[in-house]
Amino acid sequence: MDFPDRFDVIVIGGGHAGTEAAAAAARMGAKTLLLTQNIETIGQMSCNPAIGGIGKSHLVAEIDALDGVMGQATDQAGIHFRVLNASKGPAVRATRAQADRALYKNAVRNILEHQPNLSLFQQSVVDLVVEDEKVVGCETEMGLVFRAQSVVLTTGTFLGGRIHIGHEQHPGGRAGDAPANALAARLRALPFRVGRLKTGTPPRIDGRSVDFSELEHQPGDDPRPVMSQLSRRDVHPRQVHCHITYTNEQTHQIIHDNLAQSAMYSGNIEGVGPRYCPSIEDKVVRFADKPSHQIFIEPEGLNTTELYPNGISTSLPFAVQLQFVRSMVGFTNAHISRPGYAIEYDYFDPRDLQHSLETKALEGLFFAGQINGTTGYEEAGAQGLLAGINAACRAQGKDPWEPRRDEAYIGVMVDDLIHLGTTEPYRMFTSRAAFRLRLRQDNADQRLMEQGMALGLIGPQRQAAYAAKMQALQQTAAQLVKTQVFPASDLAQALGLELRRETTLQECLKRPEISAEDIAKALHMPADEEVAFKALQQFEIETKYAGYIKRQDEEIEKIRRHEGLRIPSDLNFTQIDGLSNELRQNSITTDQIPWPEQRAFRE
Amino acid sequence: MTASDTDLICAIATPPGEGGVGVIRLSGRGAKTLAQTFVRYELQSRQAQYSRFVADGEVLDDGIVIWFASPNSYTGEDVVELQGHGGPIVQQNLLQALCARGARLARPGEFSERAFLNGKLDLVQAEAVADLIAAKSKLAAKAARSSLQGIFSAQVAGLAARLLNLRVEIEAAIDFPDEDIEILQQAQVRQKLAGLSEDVHTLLRQAEQGRRLSQGLTVALLGEPNVGKSSLLNALAGEEAAIVTAIPGTTRDLLKVDVVIDGMPLRLVDTAGLRESDDAVEQIGIERARQQIYSADRVAVVLAATDLADANDSTLANCIARARAQLGAAADSLSADALHIVINKIDLHEPTLPSVEQSETRLSLVSATEQRGLQEFVAALVNHQSADAEAANFTARARHVQALTRVGSLLQQAQQALGDQAGPELVAEDCQLAHQTLGEIVGTISPDDLLGEIFSSFCIGK
């Protein structure tokens, strides 16, 4: 039967991409339906219980700047927060949180259930409804047809998912959940290039069987960072420690002796795994001279004893897993509560997507998340946000939102994906962003908020917070520019400066030895003036990076001069000198040319 | 781009006009099949075969035909060379017959372009082909051949590889601070940066010299009136290019002559003698002469041996001081190694040879009228740093020199940032741009390539 209500946007999948997509479309006022196999697993963290990290928390900050779900949910569920790269510069500092799985799921579901314009429905989708080469809806297991202007597919690892433990294998989308095989078969019939990827998880350990006295403790940071610009520390639940142990030569020997039984080493897996997240088998083989590897033990939550030992993902048989886990310090009597496994799944070549994440082959169909060959909650969430926005734009007759590489990590990721594709699960790193110094956590709102407001994405609370921040920033800038510092004055002495002639506070801040904290102290800024102090810190960043940012601006300007030049569709690319063959085969605009090749245009 | 994707192009490869042999080159998909229809024997790759060239039963020419099977050919595609007789009509007929059967005329440089696109040549090498063809002198041709063989590319690639290694360390420290990997300490980074910086500088000097090789060295002859600048120019040019008289101030404007001496292209600039003058025209000439101090690669100040009567006068230090005094304020911008002292008229007065003194400024003794010491003078001009002379035997274009200069200054900034404790992301920023700039000479690497290096160097992943 046809479902009586028509929607603007349907999102298939309730993971991190799906939830951001559905929430974003609904925030923009689009009538949105989220279809999931199981409402109970909305917001489920299938891999390790952590959000953020280098490059990744930058994505969370961008999602947050556009009023998305992930940052706030992390603050409500985070049980251990750290700032990574704290000793390095602000552009590469990142926030990382361990999350309580149950709290995280609750927080996401709570946000979705309070989101106007959004409905949830539990049912497996088996087919897309295609009319005139446009996707106009989808059909569920029970034959129910939902219709919409745009459909966003965020099916993660569930398409053709296959789980491997040793030589055993069975279909599965995640341990305990069935794969979406009917939909996978249907999609394989459509004109998309399909590939296989794999990823793995470690065995989970029951904390009651671990001797913590033998482990290194890692407490969270104090002061504790927050993930969302809107959050305050007091929304955080109780905080706990993480722990560290190490593999040893005995561990490596056990793994080495049993390599033939590993799914990955016996040739059962055709998919390619991520180079930055190798299985323990891979580590032992590829870095044979390393006697030990660090294992980071993450708590699964406040109300569970389960632990996630990050660093020993494996597809060895269970008996071998047990043996090597128990060879490690603190794990001598460890009880494995869930075996580790490798999972293989279908992904669609993202080069078949437009910048908006709409497929080139079928109008109205958008892909986001692991289906595009990425990995990670943050990468999925950021794509979901983009696809949700553009699905709503399509339904509302607006131009798509296409953030550029110099504006957002989301722009870097999409640009990489649609131009270069990927051969391994794609993960964000700051080194992927050529304009890294501009793309910081602290200015994500300044980079994106105004575009978000124009799209109708941003709620009143966040708009108000942004306005307050911008006002504080302006005041700070004005104050520092006009405040003069005279030689031997109180201010100069408070800053510890021996000046030869008068200068301004802004000039002082340019010196490497003067920090925002020094200025705050010298000005006797009250400690509780959080907004003003943050503004001061941000002004410091902008002052210290100014020369580099200016140089980047010049680079960007060179590129933009060629950007957006529409190339006539009847132009014969084969007659243009110096273009790669791949470019010749496509009708393109200059801004669709991948980054390295744009340089050729600038000469 | 693969060979099979490209259409068939043909062109006459030998110079236009009549010659003993005329070569027509055919490249692209189906080159062999098409050529096969013209010849009698089954073509064998890389074998010279004699045949008549026949089209529609008509014998167009006869000669040697060689098929180079892809990818072992100049362009990397299937290439056939028809080496027939070098007559314009014969060759045109053959070309027309080829074009009538599916080939098209190649654009200028298209064979090299394909070689570049197929990875047979890198950008530097492709440019070297053009230099080789256009080389005006033996030395320049030899240098172009060196570049073609990738000497310059190899040096730049070597620098790029070392910079990549360094970036791997810096970026790994930024993107993977939580991994227990051993990365370089700051002192080591500093040391590596300094080493790279120095080698970029060395290569830059060589590239600069290479650029002069291909484009010619500009040598300005300056000095007081009647010291024999014009005579020297004529002696070097081997012709009466400049009017030489005994009347001081004969040369009133710049006179430029291009010569090739011992395989080295030189642009000689004769200038008005430097003196106080009331003559408006002469004043302009003197001003132009002084401008040469800024624009020439070498400034040769000519002194007359007859003015150096005293043994003290002919010490190098004294000559340099005298020369710089003549040049005036502009001399301040002139580096010691760009300045050259020429003592002319040694036939009239044999000066006491200056004792060996340490200076980057060279001194030559010549007699323009008796043509003595000229070769030594030119050699000294060209191989200023004789140690570099051999290594410098590759061509470089202004583009390469510019890029290397930028790389040098970026590496300098990186060292500065490191010294200021400015944060690794700023050191990384300079290194990234430096790497990109090197890439503009020999080809870029993507962030993903960089990450690939990180993953293969370190065990990343918890």
Give a written overview of the molecule.
The complex is a heterodimer of chains A (603) and B (462). Chain A is α+β, with helices and mostly antiparallel strands. Among the domains of chain A are: 205-341, Beta Barrel (Elongation Factor Tu (Ef-tu), domain 3); 482-552, Arc Repressor Mutant, subunit A (Orthogonal Bundle), CATH 1.10.10; 561-603, no CATH class. Chain A has helices spanning 16-27, 56-65, 70-77, 101-113, 181-188, 249-257, 280-286, 318-325, 377-395, 409-420, 444-455, 460-482, 490-494, 505-510, 516-522, 530-560, 581-584, 595-602; strands at 2-12, 32-36, 50-52, 78-84, 94-99, 118-122, 125-131, 134-140, 145-153, 162-165, 168-171, 194-201, 204-206, 216-218, 242-246, 294-299, 306-310, 335-338, 341-348, 365-367, 484-485, 503-504. In chain A, strand 16 (294-299) and strand 17 (306-310) form a beta hairpin. In chain A, helix 1 runs parallel beside helix 9 (377-395), helix 2 (56-65) packs parallel to helix 9 and helix 12 (460-482) crosses helix 16 (530-560). Mean pLDDT of chain A is 89; it is low at 565-569 and 576-603. By secondary structure, chain B is α/β, with parallel strands linked by helices. Chain B has helices spanning 31-36, 88-100, 110-117, 123-134, 138-148, 151-175, 186-215, 229-237, 280-295, 316-327, 374-382, 386-389, 398-419, 424-442, 447-457; strands at 9-12, 19-27, 48-55, 58-68, 79-86, 104-105, 217-223, 255-261, 264-270, 298-304, 339-344, 362-365. In chain B, strand 3 and strand 4 form a beta hairpin. The longest helix of chain B has 30 residues, at 186-215. The two termini of chain B are 39 Å apart. In chain B, 44% of the residues are buried. Mean pLDDT of chain B is 80; it is low at 1-5 and 385-392. At the A-B interface, strand 16, helix 16 and helix 18 of A face helix 6, helix 14 and helix 15 of B.
